[in-house]
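Let us practice reading a record.
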Amino acid sequence: MTATRVHRGVLMASFGHVAVGMALARVSARDTPTRSLAPRMLACAALALLPDADVVAFALGIPYAATWGHRGASHSLVLAAAVALGVALLTRAVGGPARSAGLLTLLAVGSHGPLDAMTTGGLGPALLWPFEEARHFFPWRPIPVAPIGGGMLSARGAYVLAVEALLFLPFWAYALWPRRRRPTVAGES
């Protein structure tokens, strides 16, 4: 099977990545006003999806199995740490909480590769790049691989969405469950 054929047939639906990112945002925002939660959830969901920006490699003619191909170096834990360090430094430069921003980024970006290692197809992610080029799958692989593009409108696509909805239901429920209003203290608005 050629790399081109493989990449057209496999790609994890993104619901799981988004759910994990949103749940991480909710955990990190316990003391954050509700109005600030949606942008934080959006940012964490984007960070959790960031490693899949490597799909641009297909358009650039980079083979799927190459270091910078899909699920390659961009899915490594080292790259997640590098992105987290960058976010922490940026956050510190603007006077924000660098340590918590870096940790949240590490968890969001770093969750992507392990989730992809639990899918049922394609090449595994290069979790340990640059220390090794090998692609890895975990022994437990409950997440079915999704068809790309119009294939998501097929019975297979519906099946994948249903399985991901079920698998990630706890993350969605936690992220989206209405928050309890904190009692206002006199003088607060």
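A brief commentary: DSSP finds eight helices and no strands in the chain.
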